[in-house]
Structures are given as C-alpha cells and as structure tokens.
Design goal:
The chain has helices at residues 12-25, 36-48, 53-60, 65-71, 76-84, 92-95. It is mostly helical. GO terms for molecular function: DNA binding. It comes from marine sediment metagenome.
Length: 96
C-alpha cells in the first residue's frame, strides 16, 4: 500500500512511525493514533463530499455497512442542517 524510496513496500511499523510523526507535528497526539486514522479520514471525507454509504463501504473494502457507519463522522453542523430541513408548521392531520 505504501511505497518507500527504494520502490519496495513499507512495512506496517515504518508506516506507523511516519504517520505518528506527522500527527505529532500537526498537534494531534491523542493516545495511540496511527495509520488507521487515515481510513477514518478517507470515509469521512467521502461522506462530506456527498458519496453514499454503500459506495464508501465498497471503496473501504468493508463487508458490512455497519462497519462503514462507524467510520463516518457526522459533524454537528450536518445534523443541524438535517433538522432545519423539517417543516414544523404543517398540521399532523394534513399528513394523514
């Protein structure tokens, strides 16, 4: 997945070290964050760009949509916008 300067694959320990170093430089030093955060970022960014959950599931290689949904971070702003789409002035009797 990751290629080194010599053209060969980097092992997971090297990738972990690289990601940890850049996370620390970015001021993100919470616990044992490592390369797995890239999967979360990938899924979240696709979701933010309007890509559907089933497509994200396939791209991430997940077998279950439930797994994908754990990766997708829905921001408070998005939740607020979803609620704002509702119209509360409509009488319940009119919808029956």
């Amino acid at each position: 997945f990751f290629v080194g300067n010599n053209g060969g694959n980097l092992d997971r320990i090297h990738v972990y070290g690289i990601v940890r170093r850049y996370l620390k430089l970015a001021g993100i030093d919470k616990g044992k964050r490592g390369p797995h955060i890239l999967r979360h970022t990938f899924c979240t960014r696709l979701h933010q760009k309007g890509v559907g959950p089933f497509t994200i599931k396939d791209l991430a290689g997940h077998k279950s949509l439930n797994t994908t949904m754990r990766y997708i971070k829905i921001e408070n702003k998005e939740q607020a916008e979803a609620v704002d789409r509702l119209e509360f002035g409509e009488a319940i009797a009119d919808t029956l």
